[in-house]
Amino acid sequence: MAVNFQHPFQCVQYVQRPQAKLLLVSAGPRLYSYSAETGQRLASWPQDTGSSDQEPPEKKRKVSSSESGPLEEGKAAEKNEKAKTAPAWSNIPIVTSTSNGEYAIAVTGEDKCIRVFQLQDDGSLNQLSERAMPKRPSSIALTSDETTILCADKFGDVHSLPLIPTTDKPAVAPRPNREAKLSHPAATNLTVHTKGNLRALEQQLLLASKKKEDGEERSVGPSFEHHLLLGHVSLLTDMVFVSLPSETHKRTYILTADRDEHIRVSRGPPQAHVIETYCLGHTAFISKICVPQYAPEYLISGGGDNYLVVWNWAEGRALHKVPLVENSSAAEVVVRGIWATTIGDLRLVLVALDGSPKLLCFTLEADGALKPQTPIDLTGNVLAVTPLEEDNTIFISVDSIRTAGSIQEWRASSSSLTPPTLIEAFRPQQGSEGSSLAWEPALKSATDAINAAGSVEVPATTEDKRRTELNDLLYAMSKLRKTPRGGDDE
Amino acid sequence: MTPPPAKRQKRDEYRKQATAANPEGSSETGLPTRVKLPKKKFYRQRAHANPFSDHQLQYPLSPAHMDWASHFPAYVNPDPTQTNLAGTRKLLKDVEIVDIGCGFGGLLVGLAPLLPETLMVGMEIRVSVLDYLTTRIQALRAQQQQLQSNQSSTSTSNTTTTDTTQAATEAPEASATAAEEASTTPSMETDTPTETPTTNNDPNTDNTTDTTTIVPGGYQNITAIRSNTMKFFPNFFAKHQLSKIFICFPDPHFKARKHKARIVSETLNAEYAYALRPGGLLYTITDVEEYHHWVLRHFREGEDEESVHGAAGSVKELFERLTDEELAQDPCVRVMSEETEESKKVTRNKGNKYVAVFRRKEDPVWPA
């Protein structure tokens, strides 16, 4: 019998709460919370609101349950999944949280909703708000006071919206901007002259007068409070909010990266329209930018180029170009993620490439150079990384569906008889920090528990077309590459 | 394979000849018959281009990688060791004026003698139109060089002033009134171009008439580049490099769905502010009244500072609109509203022209 696949963890986010260490994870259309210490599943979202009585409730709040609990209930949840109608989205590409662990923010894929959750020590997720953005968010960040969400979207815009929407104040009408819709055509017989255009204008005038009679006026744009801060005429891929201490007071910046090789450095709100500089040096799209918390003067960027660039971003100056592959003629590289963390007194930069089971590992030197270290080998493609700095450990989610090294080929389903590996944890080997860094598995019991509980099932019988769709959802960045086209383009 | 249509063939032939006839800077070889300016009819192209498409654009990695030397051979730094990051020769001065969406280049050709020592570049996304303008500038330069060498050999000065810009510099008060009309009474038809000494109003011949006078600068200070400025403006120009940006008769993109494609928007204005130095000017002119209001709205014109600072701040902090008196004193406004191909077309069709010019203010101080 063919064993079904499990949706891999697209996002992994470690959340430190005063009383609990949580792991927040998205798999397929679901959000799960786990205890980072025991690996026990604490809650899943969305709950089944309209589930029938005989099926057990999905949401679990038990912290001190038996070991077998999460496993069985996890299976039940999967059965449940098939029975009920599917949610409006099939993936959750962004999961983040406030630094105090009080709120979690997730973006659901197809419905473009930013969802804010209240997190509890028991891992429960209580959705406070859902706000459908006009365009699909590609990155979200929180301002330094963590009361405002910045949302960068595929349209090239960055909007700001309050973390907790105010209810007492009616939603502020969006600025009279792109949404401004005219009740009558903007063209007149003074501006259009050809026969065809004049006829079209006549039609529009007719339509406009009809509309006026009907009194219908369509309102466009979201109704909740939001402000347009800045915009590129290009798809935004990543955004970072940085707060720098200065002599007198704090200075804040928004760094935005786009598909057309730009990294823009703007001032933080309320002066986001002041562009300080650009970091220009990539020749392919940029997919990830990272400003290490331990060295906020540096920016590390990567994308479709086979190198990373380390920047002095405040001056827009490239400092180092770091090769990602030994053989530069090798297959095209897509940087999936860049994470910066400290382990002991090591200043680490971890880099994942699309379709690679190796997590590249660098140390950031004082001059901003990236010194390569031994990479971490995993059982599948690296998808996401979240560090637990105080435990000197990193959690890495791996692709359990596709074969290691490919973003298309699925594994033979028979090979997933044992519980598939969804997550792994590593820490540096004792005493290896001096000369060269070596890694060893960590928190085995926790990762085993998480892996055993599984996630949302993907049938082994999934058709090729659906498989390609799932591949594209998880590995979307390679689609950003510009394809040279022949002939004249006008 | 069917052969390309006759029209395409004719075009290709013509263009090949046109570029061959005006090889850059080779006027000293024998001085053949007078250099002809290109004919527009062989370069026409659909008026719209999708700014969101990738096209096949060439753009520098950064402003420090831009090869300006090939565009301004007369201004190349004589020291060959002075090279930019891409290894090409540096110029003696930076490009300062940009015409975004320069079309057939009427503004550049009009401004060139007015600001003979300032380097100007036109940016155009449409290939054919850019081909025309490049050929036109080359021809103009070659003509000027011919005239200069003729003059030095015969030492008889050619003083026929049929050139409109020449006339304008000699009669600044005339230009001032024209500009005033264009700005203060936008809803009225501006019929001034019929009074200016242009000898031709036929769109097919106007630019093919040869200049017979020596023009200051010899058109060595203008050039044109194919680019999508909405995407790649910061690749060409560094912070505060520019003193003037022109946006003349932009594609109105009438449909609301297409408004994001408009070249003026609050988010793009931030990019223009980045490239403009404090005190620099951004000129806009359109014949579409709704677009004019769009421009004012996206520069937050008419909003009080209070409401602006209350929320998230806006480009209002970066730009201020020029008064009508200031416009009247600016000869660039007159060139913009009379000498661009589009403005001539609007005049022919008795349309309106709406002018708005904004001055770049100093960057605001950092918030406390």
TrEMBL record, chain A:
<keyword id="KW-0808">Transferase</keyword>
<dbReference type="GO" id="GO:0005634">
    <property type="term" value="C:nucleus"/>
</dbReference>
<dbReference type="GO" id="GO:0005829">
    <property type="term" value="C:cytosol"/>
</dbReference>
<dbReference type="GO" id="GO:0008168">
    <property type="term" value="F:methyltransferase activity"/>
</dbReference>
<protein>
    <submittedName>
        <fullName>Guanine-N(7)--methyltransferase subunit trm82</fullName>
    </submittedName>
</protein>
<keyword id="KW-0489">Methyltransferase</keyword>
<feature type="compositionally biased region" description="Basic and acidic residues">
    <location>
        <begin position="72"/>
        <end position="84"/>
    </location>
</feature>
<keyword id="KW-0853">WD repeat</keyword>
<dbReference type="InterPro" id="IPR028884">
    <property type="entry name" value="Trm82"/>
</dbReference>
<keyword id="KW-0539">Nucleus</keyword>
<comment type="function">
    <text>Required for the formation of N(7)-methylguanine at position 46 (m7G46) in tRNA. In the complex, it is required to stabilize and induce conformational changes of the catalytic subunit.</text>
</comment>
<keyword id="KW-0819">tRNA processing</keyword>
<dbReference type="GO" id="GO:0106004">
    <property type="term" value="P:tRNA (guanine-N7)-methylation"/>
</dbReference>
<comment type="similarity">
    <text>Belongs to the WD repeat TRM82 family.</text>
</comment>
<comment type="pathway">
    <text>tRNA modification; N(7)-methylguanine-tRNA biosynthesis.</text>
</comment>
<keyword id="KW-0677">Repeat</keyword>
<dbReference type="InterPro" id="IPR036322">
    <property type="entry name" value="WD40_repeat_dom_sf"/>
</dbReference>
<feature type="region of interest" description="Disordered">
    <location>
        <begin position="42"/>
        <end position="86"/>
    </location>
</feature>
<dbReference type="GO" id="GO:0043527">
    <property type="term" value="C:tRNA methyltransferase complex"/>
</dbReference>
<dbReference type="InterPro" id="IPR015943">
    <property type="entry name" value="WD40/YVTN_repeat-like_dom_sf"/>
</dbReference>
UniProtKB/TrEMBL annotation, chain B:
<keyword id="KW-0949">S-adenosyl-L-methionine</keyword>
<comment type="function">
    <text>Catalyzes the formation of N(7)-methylguanine at position 46 (m7G46) in tRNA.</text>
</comment>
<feature type="binding site">
    <location>
        <begin position="228"/>
        <end position="229"/>
    </location>
    <ligand>
        <name>S-adenosyl-L-methionine</name>
    </ligand>
</feature>
<feature type="binding site">
    <location>
        <position position="248"/>
    </location>
    <ligand>
        <name>S-adenosyl-L-methionine</name>
    </ligand>
</feature>
<dbReference type="GO" id="GO:0005634">
    <property type="term" value="C:nucleus"/>
</dbReference>
<keyword id="KW-0820">tRNA-binding</keyword>
<dbReference type="InterPro" id="IPR025763">
    <property type="entry name" value="Trm8_euk"/>
</dbReference>
<protein>
    <recommendedName>
        <fullName>tRNA (guanine-N(7)-)-methyltransferase</fullName>
        <ecNumber>2.1.1.33</ecNumber>
    </recommendedName>
</protein>
<dbReference type="Pfam" id="PF02390">
    <property type="entry name" value="Methyltransf_4"/>
</dbReference>
<feature type="compositionally biased region" description="Low complexity">
    <location>
        <begin position="144"/>
        <end position="213"/>
    </location>
</feature>
<comment type="similarity">
    <text>Belongs to the class I-like SAM-binding methyltransferase superfamily. TrmB family.</text>
</comment>
<dbReference type="InterPro" id="IPR003358">
    <property type="entry name" value="tRNA_(Gua-N-7)_MeTrfase_Trmb"/>
</dbReference>
<dbReference type="GO" id="GO:0000049">
    <property type="term" value="F:tRNA binding"/>
</dbReference>
<feature type="binding site">
    <location>
        <begin position="340"/>
        <end position="342"/>
    </location>
    <ligand>
        <name>S-adenosyl-L-methionine</name>
    </ligand>
</feature>
<keyword id="KW-0489">Methyltransferase</keyword>
<feature type="active site">
    <location>
        <position position="251"/>
    </location>
</feature>
<feature type="binding site">
    <location>
        <position position="101"/>
    </location>
    <ligand>
        <name>S-adenosyl-L-methionine</name>
    </ligand>
</feature>
<feature type="region of interest" description="Disordered">
    <location>
        <begin position="144"/>
        <end position="216"/>
    </location>
</feature>
<keyword id="KW-0539">Nucleus</keyword>
<keyword id="KW-0819">tRNA processing</keyword>
<feature type="binding site">
    <location>
        <begin position="124"/>
        <end position="125"/>
    </location>
    <ligand>
        <name>S-adenosyl-L-methionine</name>
    </ligand>
</feature>
<comment type="pathway">
    <text>tRNA modification; N(7)-methylguanine-tRNA biosynthesis.</text>
</comment>
